[in-house]
Design brief:
Layout lengths: L1 H64 L2 H9 L3 H13 L3 E8 L4 E7 L5 E3 L12 H7 L7 E2 L3 E2 L1 E2 L2 E2 L5 E10 L5 E9 L1 H7 L5 E6 L5 E3 L17 H5 L4 H6 L5 E2 L4 E8 L2 E9 L1 H24 L2 H66 L5 H28 L7 E4 H18 L3 E7 L14 E4 L1 H20 L10 E8 L3 E8 L27 H11 L4 E9 L2 E11 L7
Parallel strand pairs: 16-18
Antiparallel strand pairs: 1-2, 1-9, 2-3, 4-8, 5-8, 6-7, 8-9, 10-11, 10-14, 12-13, 13-14, 15-17, 18-19, 19-21, 20-21
Helix pairs in contact: 1-8, 1-9, 9-10, 9-11, 11-12, 12-13
């Protein structure tokens, strides 16, 4: 009996060692993959910060480049009003370090500075400098008129010397041309220190930014940032003792591990190439290995006391439960990612919707200020301006209401008009499409036009409207990206058709574009999760659309490719039941 027990104990111990090894390998790889996913999310946050900075500053530059008073300085040399305009802008935007107007020969005409102590002053004429030899001036002068340019992330230079303590700055500029044909350059210097602090305060990871030669621009330890300009220069390869670091980063377009603690990826910041590197928190790795050690001790001790076969049963049960739980978690994560992507798309739509009314309000206020300075501000102009401002504010309020209604959690089945539902989404999304010169057509087929589509009862269905909105948004986004990828899209290729068909028991919505279609070699895989043919795609859109269609809407979703007059296109057909009883 003792021999049998000993044999079972030995078998159980060997099996436990094997199981522990396999579990340790799996847990380590899974942990590293999860950490890579977390890093990817932080990287997307940084890219959003960069995009927000670009949109905000380009709007400011464009406003100044079209201002008649700014342009008149080049012809008439009158600077008083423009100086005060520059002064007001610097007061209103705390990130502006310097706002300048330069002549075509590089001489500063107007300059307003924000000092490090917060004081703001207009620089007198005898202190203005010539910047004709500075690289950013030459770059901006070579731009086409009214095209916004961005300098590399750099340090501020005054009188030919780098300012100390280091003052990180970014220059945004454009070449302008007056009605008299004279040229100049508008340059905005931005304080980047607070922006950099936001990037270096990421949870669980340390963020580094490298230039093309591998010198640090951003380092969590401030005394190691801008390592090119330190008394003793050093690169990231020298600091981390990774001689092939830059070669590894330059050869990859996706996030890649460069060792057990560092992951890196190329990143474009305002048309300039840099390299982002993320370092794992040491405590994060310590917890991972500590959990493995604790598991090893408990597993060995338990298997010494209990027979091997019982342990095997428990291990199998454990793995099955973990697998089921992981499957449920993955489903939840996929749905959450899809919701976040939809929110991102709609936030982009809101940004486009708001840009024009905000610019209009700014111009109205500018006209009022101009009239006041010229003693021509009468009651009629004031009342008209007030009415126009309130009209723009009402438009902004309506846009927010529409956005809030789009994301209202609605899990109940209710009656909706498909034509109205689709046009609600297009109302928010249309500015993004127009910005890319994309036209949309909503076509209703098979119904007489004796009743307006908005009030036609044949277009009404009992369904889940929030789910349909999200699916429509997925297809609009996919078609937009496909059309944008065509270098010179013609009128046919720059069009999206949405066709609605109804029958007694079902309704269908077809999404059609002529942007080249999907290659036959991959069209059978397009509904698989995480499968994508786009460089920045997540591979979740079509999978989520199919899942929601089958599981929630109790409908079907199919893809068809077609050729039309020499064009190849894509057609996705969403078919859903029309009556309440068909949705359980």
């Amino acid at each position: 009996m003792r021999k049998v027990y000993a044999l079972l104990l030995i078998i159980g111990f060997i099996v436990s060692v094997i199981c522990f090894y396999l579990f340790a390998v799996y847990n380590y790889r899974s942990g590293m993959n999860n950490m890579l996913g977390d890093i990817e999310q932080q990287h997307q946050f940084i890219k959003k910060e960069i995009e927000f900075l670009k949109e905000k500053e380009s709007s400011l530059i464009n406003m100044l480049a079209s201002d008649e008073y700014v342009l008149s300085v080049l012809d008439k040399g009158t600077t008083d009003f423009t100086r005060h305009l520059f002064l007001d802008l610097v007061h209103s935007q705390v990130e502006i370090m310097q706002l300048r107007l330069l002549s075509s020969k590089g001489m500063e005409i107007i300059r307003v500075d924000r000092l490090r102590n917060g004081d703001i002053k207009i620089i007198p004429n005898n202190e203005l400098q010539n910047k004709s030899n500075r690289y950013y001036f030459l770059d901006f002068m070579n731009l086409p008129p009214n095209v916004t340019g961005y300098s590399p992330l750099d340090l501020n230079v005054e009188q030919g010397m780098i300012e100390y303590p280091f003052n990180p700055t970014l220059r945004v500029g454009t070449r302008i041309q007056s009605t008299g044909g004279r040229e100049g350059v508008i340059v905005v210097n931005l304080y980047m220190e607070e922006w950099i602090k936001r990037l270096t305060s990421l949870p669980s990871f340390k963020f580094y930014l490298l230039d093309k030669e591998g010198f640090y621009l951003i380092h969590p330890q401030l005394d190691k940032s801008w390592s090119r300009y330190r008394q003793k220069q050093f690169t990231a390869e020298e600091y981390w003792n990774l001689p092939h670091l830059m070669e590894t980063l330059q050869d990859n377009k996706e996030l890649v591990w460069v060792n057990k603690h560092l992951a890196g990826i190329p990143i474009d910041i305002l048309n300039h190439r840099y390299y982002a590197v993320y370092e794992l928190d040491r405590n994060y790795l310590s917890l991972l290995f500590r959990s493995l050690a604790e598991f090893a001790f408990i597993t060995v001790l338990t298997l010494i006391l209990i027979l091997g076969p019982i342990i095997l049963i428990l291990v199998n049960t454990y793995h099955r439960l973990i697998s089921e739980q992981k499957g449920r978690q993955e489903d939840s994560i996929i749905m959450l990612k899809s919701k976040l992507e939809a929110q991102g798309e709609m936030l982009g739509a809101i940004a486009h919707q708001w840009r024009q009314p905000l610019n209009s309000i700014g111009l109205i206020i500018q006209d009022l200020f101009s009239a006041y300075r010229h003693n021509s501000l009468g009651p009629d102009l004031f009342i008209t301006s007030k009415k126009e401002i309130f009209e723009q504010l009402n438009f902004l309020s309506e846009t927010i209401d529409t956005f809030r209604n789009f994301f209202t959690k609605d899990i109940s089945v209710r009656k909706v008009n498909l034509y109205v539902l689709i046009n609600e989404i297009l109302h928010l999304y249309q500015p993004q499409l127009k910005a890319r010169e994309i036209e949309t057509n909503v076509i209703v087929q098979g119904l007489a036009e004796d009743v307006e589509w908005e009030n036609n009862p044949n277009l009404e269905v009992m369904t889940l409207p929030a789910d349909i909105k999200q699916i429509v948004l997925i297809f609009l986004s996919n078609s937009r990206d496909a059309i944008s990828s065509i270098k010179s899209a013609d009128e046919k290729q720059s069009c999206i058709n949405i066709e609605i068909k109804v029958s007694n028991s079902s309704s269908s919505i077809a999404f059609i574009d002529w942007a080249g279609g999907i290659p036959d070699s991959i069209k059978d895989r397009i509904f698989e999760p995480y499968f994508t043919s786009r460089e920045m795609g997540t591979g979740l859109g079509l999978f989520i659309a199919l899942t929601m269609t089958k599981n929630r809407l109790k409908g079907s979703l199919i893809y068809e490719s077609f050729e039309d007059s020499g064009y190849r296109g894509s057609k996705f057909i969403l078919e859903i039941p029309k009556n309440t009883e068909l949705i359980d």
